[in-house]
Amino acid sequence: MAQNTPGTPPLTPESAELAQLLRTGPFHLALRSALTARGLALTRVQHKLAQRGIKVGVTSLSYWQQGARRPQRPESLRAVRALEEVLELPAHSLHRLLVPEGGARPEAERPAARSYRSLMAPAGVLQQLFAELETPADGGLHTVGHHERVRIGPRRELSARESLQVVRAHRDGVDRYVAIHRGDQGCDPSRVRVAAAENCRLGRVRGDAGAGVVVAELLFDVRLRAGDTHVFGYSFEDGSGGSSSEYVRGFSFAGGQYVLQVRFDEAALPVRCRRFAQTSAHAPRSAQQELTLSGTHRAVHLVEQGVRPGILGIGWDWG
After folding, report:
1. Domain boundaries 13-98, corresponding CATH code
2. What is the pTM for the complete model shown?
């Protein structure tokens, strides 16, 4: 049985979320989460700052936690450092979300990101498909939780994959997500079927036969504000490609949990399975680890608690 260290408060969902936001940002959500976790009203925070010789209006504090304004002036940044003391946060934890190491300011208040161009080989194809959907590559969402199940069929083909995803908006007005499916060699996008499951409905679908890529627009019934989360599910039925030897998932943003399960048909079982990571599509593979196939469910899985921008995957060898 796990025990708490004497004097250490128990880990709660709120404190776990705060810890993640302090790592990944954005600033206003980290500040809002800290205020909630400490249970301090803005007037009380203002009073505590004043005791430290820092004068900040309640309106400014409200704007900061809403993301309507961003502390930029030297006196505002000093107030942020004082806020870390008032909210009992690690030194520099809020400040670095505004001014990262080296002093360069981030372009936008969102988690650390990497372009999808570095994550998938047919980047030009994806750019064209996204343009057809009139959707920017950064759709205003980042994943905070993703459970994915992949099925490999009796012909060793990628038969289907199902996703249950939790996302958070890092800007206002987001009402859709674009899912990407890349099949194996010989994949026919016209034979790929997309289904919306929980809390979304299917919009436009586009594909490219040369690259074996399908992109699908999943529409939400709500328009998210910055900081809102949304849970939704969807699936791709494929089976049109040739023999499959791996499944990979690219991550543009840091943070969140990813669970990948690959299940094999009893008529096609691999002799060896392994997990791996890559910083980009053309980078060498690292963090390789052997995985044991479950005799009962004929499956292997990986769990990554805090993903980094890059690629995670499971590969396997046929006998």
Report:
1. 1.10.260
2. 0.66
